[in-house]
Each structure stands twice: as structure tokens, then as C-alpha cells.
Write a structure and sequence with these properties.
The protein has one domain. Helix content is 35%, strand content 17%. The protein has helices at 20-31, 36-50, 86-96, 127-138, 148-156, 162-173, 183-189, 205-217, 220-224, 226-238, 244-248, 276-286, 296-317, 328-331, 334-341, 446-459, 465-470, 486-489, 492-500, and strands at residues 8-10, 14-17, 60-66, 71-76, 158-159, 201-202, 253-255, 258-262, 265-269, 362-367, 373-379, 427-431, 434-442, 474-476, 481-484, 504-507, 516-522, 528-532, 539-542. The strands form four sheets. A seven-stranded antiparallel β-sheet has the order 1-18-17-13-12-9-8. Strands 7-4-3-11-10-2-19 form a seven-stranded antiparallel β-sheet, with helices on one face. A three-stranded mixed β-sheet has the order 14-15-16. The longest helix has 22 residues, at 296-317. It is globular. The two termini are 30 Å apart. Mean pLDDT is 94; it is low at 98-109. Keywords: Transferase.
């Protein structure tokens, strides 16, 4: 008999993430007197070493911070190279072909798509600058102290966790691209051409050296120093477009999180270029539906249909707001939600974008004894990103440019020095302006629908964070096809009810498609209650 995992209750602080060694790194920082931002950074930096298929030094980062009084948002995503053009991509994809990927939920299935590997989808890594910027604004311990565990595991090695090993094996088993830019991947990230096995010790001393330089220089070496120069040189040698100037121009952006009301609470996400608005659009629609009065099949039907409309609008309008105006306020207006809600019926539909009025990944959350809380997510995208590894430095560069469109009329069209549509989204929950806590569900296209399901399980079903995370999930990708976890598939009445409404339901065998989540809520009696993903190596630790 399998017993459900219980939530963690902690009086002073907590850390929740998808890898126990990284969670322990964050907890150690809390116990040394660091705050929630220090703990989040130690966890995030350690995750690049102990869960490399999902995130790396060469990735991006987004964060929401509750500082004790209000929320702050950091968009630490990078921009495309200044030399990148749509025409250049079209020539390359016409010559080699490109495989549409999950970034846009099937929206790129027709016509040419951005390539998923190699130099063309590489954007400037934003994570190292994001670590520095979060620390400069909120950190309390010395920046270099937050790298101790990560450097130690990279230099001396660690036993690979089972869930990470499974993801690693799937990535290495997939056919790999050929070319000089990929030559370093096997040396760094395989053991004689295979992935490390569960419990097998793996080390990455080159990454230890890179992390030391980032720690010692406050990431300056990555963007203006030796590492930047070597990225520039490697790109020039092997057909890449990214240059030292692209790296030197990089800057994170502090943003105001955006929210909608749901069941008397405020659900917060970061504004575009991330896809968090898809979750908010869906929740805004669902807030006008009495889900408690519906049957289980009807509840899931409404959630699925609301998520479809949320994605339709996100895919139509989300782009780099520094380049193209994004109608975020209009999309989240309650009147617009009511108009979108009116489109839904008791039959599965094919979503189309509305017309609002104009005006892979790891997730972690932390909380400290002073009331500060952090929701942070970082990724290289897909598995090992672009698979371009900088020789001698032990990290892969991300392939976030895969999120661009090739349609010249689309606001998210590929081009120079712009941020692409981004899948990684941290979430935060408040009630009447008071913090409830951080949450997130990683997994590409799964993320907004994972947020909807976690929030609904919390506020509609009244479940604690662990029970909410353990609630069986569903996943919509495109059309009328819906994947459900086996526990949902076993509920014959529910599946029959969905199929009767036109949904094409399949019971999935692969757990990874349903994402991995974490959550920490403030406990009414004091302290915190935390949950972590039971589908993988998730851990929540407190003190």
C-alpha cells in the first residue's frame, strides 16, 4: 500500500525544490542566518550542478519576492543576438528542417519552426545576472558564500538522484545533433556516452571553476570578462551569432507582478514575455463558475476549456514588451474574462484568440523567519538546452529562442536583441494583500495549466500544499486531446464524462509531462506549511 506524502510544518523557515541536495543547500543558508533570497539563490545555484538536464549556468531566471510588505518581480531572461534575423533562420530551417517543440503548445505545427538545438535558438543567459541582481537588492550574506555547496558538488561529485537520472537518460538516448558546436557535450554530460545511473557519482570540475569566477566577480566575468570572451570566440569558431557585445548589453528587468482575483484571493504572475498571463486568463474565467456545484467531469471540462482560451490569448499576444506593446491589462480585465467565459459550452472546443481592448526547468520556493518569501524558476529549456557546451567551462547554453515565431506578422517574430515567449513562470498567492505564499509547477506548456490545477486544488478543494501537489493532473497540448494521469484514468465516470463532452482522453504512462511543483504557505498559527513534488526527487526542508 502506498501512503501519501505528508506536508512539512516548519516554525522558522522552509525550502522546497525538486532535488534534495539543493534544498539542503538552501536550508543550510537559512540556518546560518541568511534570508529567503539568500536561501533561494543557494538552492538555485546548486540546482545547476545537481539537476543539469533541467537547468544550467547558461539558462534564464524569473523570480517573485515578498519582502515583508509587498511583491517584487525580476525578469532575468536574456535577449537574442543582435545579428539574428528571421531570414537567417528561414534559410537554415529550409536547409536542415526544424522540429516544432512544446514551447507554444502545438501552435507552430504548421509551417517552418525555430530549430530546437544549435546556435540559432541560443539567447543570452540571464541566470548569473539574475542571481547577482536578487542578491544586490535583497541578500544579506556575502554573495560568494551562496556558491559553497554548488562548487563542492561540482568539484568533488555527488550521487545522481533517481528522477534526475531518468530525465538525463531520456535526453542522452535521443538522437543527438552533429557539428563542431556540440563536440563538448558528451565529454561533460555523459559517462562513456551514456547518462549517469541513479546513485552513480558524477562531477563537473569545469563548472566549479565557472561558478568560482561568477561568485568572485558578481557575475561580471560572465558578461564582460573571460567567460564572455570565450563564449564570443566559441561562437565565432563554430557558427554562432552571440558576441561579447550581446553579453555586455544584457540587463535584468525589475517588473511589477500582475494578478487576478480567484475565490477571494489574488493569484500573482509576472507579466510578459512569460506565459503567466495564460494561467491568470484561465483563473479569471473560472472565478465566475461555481465549480463546487459541478460533477468531477464537469469541473475538469470547465478547467480544460478555460486553459485553452488562456493559451490562445497568450500565444497570440505575448512577446517582448520592450519591442511590442502587450495588452496585459486588457487581457486581465474582468469584463474581458466574462466575454471569454460566455464562449464556453458543455462541448470541447477549438480555442481561438480573443480581441481585448488595447491600452526540461526547475522551480523552488523559500521562506524565512522574518516573513520574506521567494518564488523562483530557472531553466535552459528542453533537456540540456541547445546542447552547445562552452569548452572548459562545464555548462550548456539555453535554447530559449525556440519560443520565437517565424510568422512576420506575429508580435513574437524572431529578430535581433529581443526576448522570446517564455514558458517558465513563478507564482504567488495572497489574500486581501497579505501573503499566503509562493508556488510553481515546472514543465514547459504544462506550467500555466499546472498553476490552475494547483490553485484550484488549494482554494476550491481546501487541500494543504502537499495534497494539492499530489492531486492527479491532466495536460492539454492542442486540439481536443487531453492526457490524464493514471489515477484520473481509473475514474471511469470522469473519463466517460469528458469523452461525452468531446474530449479525446488518453491515460498517460509518462509522468514527466505533468510537471513538477512546489509550494509553501504561511500557516495561520505561525510558521509555514510546505509541499514538494512526489512524482520526482522533490524535497521540502524546514527548521
Amino acid at each position: 500500500m502506498a501512503y501519501p506524502r505528508q506536508p512539512l510544518f516548519a516554525p522558522n523557515g522552509a525550502v522546497a525544490t525538486s532535488q534534495p541536495l539543493a534544498a539542503a543547500a538552501g536550508l543550510a543558508v537559512l540556518r546560518r542566518g541568511g534570508n529567503a533570497v539568500d536561501a533561494a539563490l543557494a538552492t538555485a545555484i546548486t540546482l545547476t550542478v545537481v539537476q543539469p538536464p533541467s537547468n544550467d549556468i547558461g539558462g534564464d531566471l524569473f523570480a517573485i519576492v515578498w519582502d515583508g510588505e509587498r511583491l517584487h518581480g525580476l525578469n532575468a531572461s536574456g535577449r537574442s543576438p543582435a545579428a539574428l534575423t528571421r531570414e537567417m533562420v528561414l534559410v537554415a530551417t529550409d536547409r536542415r528542417g526544424a522540429t516544432p517543440v512544446d514551447a507554444l503548445g502545438g501552435a507552430q505545427a504548421q509551417g517552418p519552426a525555430m530549430p530546437a538545438r544549435g546556435w540559432l535558438p541560443v539567447t543570452v543567459p540571464g541566470a548569473p545576472a539574475g542571481w547577482r541582481d536578487l542578491h544586490e537588492r535583497f541578500g544579506s550574506l556575502p554573495f560568494a558564500d551562496l556558491f559553497t555547496d554548488a562548487i563542492g558538488y561540482a568539484e568533488r561529485g555527488y550521487p545522481v538522484a533517481a528522477g534526475t537520472a531518468a530525465t538525463w537518460a531520456r535526453a542522452v538516448a535521443a538522437p543527438g545533433p552533429a557539428g563542431a558546436e556540440y563536440a563538448e557535450f558528451d565529454r561533460v554530460f555523459t559517462v562513456d556516452g551514456r547518462a549517469p545511473r541513479p546513485g552513480e557519482r558524477w562531477r563537473n570540475p569545469d563548472a566549479a571553476g565557472t561558478l568560482r569566477r561568477i561568485a568572485a566577480t558578481g557575475a561580471a566575468d560572465f558578461y564582460q570578462g573571460r567567460i564572455a570572451a570565450e563564449i564570443d570566440a566559441h561562437a565565432a569558431r563554430t557558427g554562432g551569432l552571440i558576441t561579447g557585445d550581446d553579453l555586455a548589453r544584457h540587463a535584468s528587468t525589475w517588473v511589477d507582478p500582475v494578478s487576478v482575483r480567484y475565490r477571494g484571493h489574488e493569484v500573482w504572475e509576472l507579466p510578459p514575455n512569460g506565459q503567466g498571463v495564460a494561467a491568470l486568463l484561465a483563473l479569471n474565467i473560472l472565478d465566475g463558475v461555481d465549480l463546487a456545484a459541478l460533477s468531477p467531469a464537469e469541473r475538469l471540462h470547465w478547467q480544460i476549456e478555460a486553459v485553452k482560451l488562456g493559451f490562445a490569448d497568450a500565444h497570440a499576444y505575448v512577446a517582448d514588451p520592450e519591442r511590442v506593446p502587450v495588452p496585459t491589462a486588457a487581457l486581465l480585465d474582468p469584463g474581458y474574462a466574462a466575454a471569454r467565459r460566455a464562449l464556453l459550452t458543455d462541448r470541447a472546443g477549438d480555442p481561438v484568440a480573443g480581441d481585448p481592448e488595447r491600452g526540461g526547468t526547475v522551480y523552488l520556493c523559500t521562506a524565512d523567519s522574518g516573513g520574506m518569501m521567494v518564488s523562483l524558476i530557472q531553466s535552459t529549456y528542453l533537456a540540456f538546452g541547445s546542447r552547445v557546451v562552452l569548452p572548459g567551462h562545464g555548462f550548456a547554453l539555453q535554447n530559449r529562442g525556440t519560443g520565437f515565431r517565424l510568422d512576420p506578422t506575429h508580435p513574437n517574430v524572431v529578430g535581433p536583441a529581443r526576448r522570446p515567449f517564455h514558458t517558465i513562470i513563478p507564482g504567488f498567492l495572497t489574500r486581501d494583500g497579505a501573503p499566503v505564499g509562493p508556488f510553481g509547477v515546472m514543465g514547459g506548456h504544462m506550467q500555466p495549466q499546472g498553476h490552475v490545477q494547483l490553485v484550484s486544488a488549494t482554494l476550491d478543494a481546501g487541500r494543504d500544499p502537499q495534497a494539492a501537489l499530489d492531486t492527479p493532473r491532466w495536460y492539454w497540448h492542442a486540439g481536443r486531446s487531453v492526457l490524464v494521469e493514471p489515477a484520473l484514468g481509473a475514474e471511469q465516470d470522469l473519463v466517460a464524462g469528458l469523452r461525452a463532452r468531446g474530449h479525446e482522453v488518453t491515460v498517460a504512462a509518462e509522468p514527466a509531462v505533468f510537471g513538477y511543483g512546489q509550494a509553501i504557505w504561511r500557516h495561520p498559527a505561525g510558521g509555514y506549511v510546505a509541499g514538494s513534488e512526489s512524482r520526482v526527487d522533490g524535497a521540502m526542508l524546514g527548521w
